[in-house]
Specification:
Layout lengths: L2 H11 L6 E4 L4 E4 L37 E4 L10 H11 L2 H5 L2
Antiparallel strand pairs: 1-2, 1-3
Amino acid sequence: MPRSVGLDALAILGNRSGAVLEDPLAAALYWFVPPGTTAEWDVAGTRVLAEDAHLVIPPDRRTQGPGPHWRVCPTAEAWTTEAAALQAALEDAASPCRGAAR
């Protein structure tokens, strides 16, 4: 998803977020959700990557660029984010009311 909406969604999710990958070249953030949880995904401005998509995964603790780095580092307990929580946070982050309050 676009970085600007993703950062707002991350703030909304707080500690409910799993690992988040940031790609500065694409100006995008990537979340990891459990397999099979995106069949009903319909969030404007975002897309689900196919299972065979390729992402550059940086070392576990790289939190700065250049290149892809972790906005939220993965842990054994927190690689994935619940898809429904992520979808709700993204919808809230992209809502016109939230944008007006900035």
